[in-house]
Amino acid sequence: MAEFQDRVLKCIDCGTDFIFSAGEQQFYREKDFRNEPKRCRTCKNKRQSASSDRGGHGGRVETTATCFQCGRETTVPFRPTQGRPVLCRDCFQTLKGVRAAPGPG
Length: 105
Known about the structure:
alpha+beta, two-stranded antiparallel ribbon
């Protein structure tokens, strides 16, 4: 097992130095994270807070839409992109099952 040592990194938002601790490095390795952190804890927290205020990772977005396949009104956990069909849960599961089914031979 590799021995980890604390490293000093520079935040891409505020430019301050921050410590990427040996424990954090070990955690990243165990989780198979490929990239080092880019932001200090303060900037990371600000970014996450702003994201949840906009309905990002911290807050769930529920949007009402009409299913492209069956025409029923449904809610989806994202904001639909213009021109892309939206499916209700039942139609999505049916389509997903068809795609996952093994082909002949």
